[in-house]
Amino acid sequence: MKKRFIVIAVSFFVALGLSVGDVLAKSRTIRISYNVAPGSSWDKGALKFKEIIEKESKGEIKVETFPSAVLAQGNDRVEIEMAQSGVIDMLIKSTMWMPALDPRFSAIQMPFQFANHDVAEAVMDGPAGNMLLDLLPKHKLKGLAWGVNGFRQVTNGRKEIRMPKDMEGLKVRVPGIDLSLAIFRKLGTTPVSMSFAEVFTALQTQTVDGQENPLSLIWSSRFFEVQKYCTLWNYMYDAVCFIASDKLWNSLNAAEKDMFMKAAKEAMHHERQVVRGEDKTLVGELEKKGMKMTVLNPTELKAFQDAIRPVYVEFKGKLGQETVSVFEQEIAKVTKKK
Q1: What values do phi and psi take at 21, rounded to 5?
Q2: pTM
């Protein structure tokens, strides 16, 4: 009876001019993973993508979102590997973790290079950002669009930070990339690398004194519950990349690829606007939660820039003059236009 049903079903599909594969393809589910909490800017960007794709495909393509990297048990590196293998279809990933694929991604995070969101977004959407997206296919990934995590700030539970000397002796969680580790060592801290999913507990148990992340993640991850002090120094711009696995990308036809690309760009534009809005409101909201928000004056900010400058010079050499120069040239060009 089961075999007879299959034969009848196949005959029906053939009569309509469809293959079984065509019919199955009509109902697909795309899984998007990202290692931040529900309600975060990334989550809102993913939900915007879901809304667009399900509408444009007339419900033929469903999108499921998986915050907090639950598919990878919160492990950032495993999450990337699952996307490379095609187990995860799509990924929104901070570029803080992408130097593990290619060191040249660290060019985004060179300290104090972006003055504001306008400059950073123009650079990331231009030749510099495209140069980095072109590095992904050899890693079985397809970069679709740039979003933003934000400008990274530093928090801790022990003391106010206004000058480089205030950071000496602190144990600070940073992403496990060489540039971050080098910056915080230069400032006299003990940098500790761990997955983002572990950070709240590490702060709560005082395994580490502090961490550095954009305001949006400090808020959505509720770090204000376990941290007293936040210094606003915008020391590093953290872009996020909306990525498709090769397995998914290669399964799409030309029209679907165009739809996915446009939806990703619109979703990341929405996500960027969320972050910009949060930058304006979250300082006050975090103060209401009991955090002391410290804004550095020009003299204090210059002290940090001078302290970190040797790291910039060192990594410019490591990443290659050509890569860093593309960013420097694009930043100068965009800044002149502004």
Answers
A1: -60, -40
A2: 0.86
